[in-house]
Amino acid sequence: MKKIIAVDGPAGAGKSTISKICAARLGYTYIDTGAMYRAVALKVLQSGKDAVDVASDIQIELDEAARVFVDGRDVTNQIRTPEVSRAASDVAKIGFVRKRLTELQRQMAARGSVIMDGRDIGTQVLPNADLKIFLTASADERARRRFEELKAKGIAADIDNIREEIIARDKQDSEREIAPLAQAADAVPVDSTRMTIDEVVAEILRLAAC
Ligand code: CDP
Q1: Is the distance from the beta carbon of residue 7 to the nearest atom of ligand 1 less than 6 Å?
Q2: pLDDT digits over 180-207, tens only?
Q3: Partner of 23 at 20 to 30 A CA spacing, among 34, 62, 65, 151?
Q4: Is 131 left (phi over 0), alpha (psi -120 to 50) or beta?
């Protein structure tokens, strides 16, 4: 069984939904690295401080229920707004922020069997992962999924705006100089556009068992 699993891909591809289910089925720890960039972004927006200052002393904890705590405060819902998504992609360009969070992510992964999702897990954070997945879906499908997710939380949104925001964020994430969103050479590509959640989970569990 593969012990260290890296899942990368663009915004809204289903990485966190799929990784959470696979982690529960395998009895592994799920580590959502996007939530960590979102946590830094939220604190920058709320404090008005510089991202480097924030990253140097922020305390981020992820619990077993995938809740996110910043300096001991539960921010699980607050980090999921479109404003924080944009700000997360901005702070994620900064070398010092990436260095700090990458260190934390490696420490978390060293504790045992994990599924970690993000943009640079297979390429930078855990280049020796036992299994690397690059999860994608068409921009239209990813926008639809994000729209449904926001709707379910009672957050009003416009699907065309969401699609534009997703495309802009993917461009910024793919074109940044440090640790851009990229498929590792040894990653298995999974296009989930026409797959159900159960089908994607089954495919990853099959690959994890090889
Ligand atoms: O959920 P969604 O796919 O929309 O985004 P996320 O995984 O929560 O990540 C939010 C932002 O954090 C991304 O747009 C990236 O800019 C950044 N990020 C990153 O740079 N590296 C990671 N390993 C994870 C996220």
Answers
A1: no
A2: 999 999 999 999 999 999 999 999 999 9
A3: 151
A4: beta
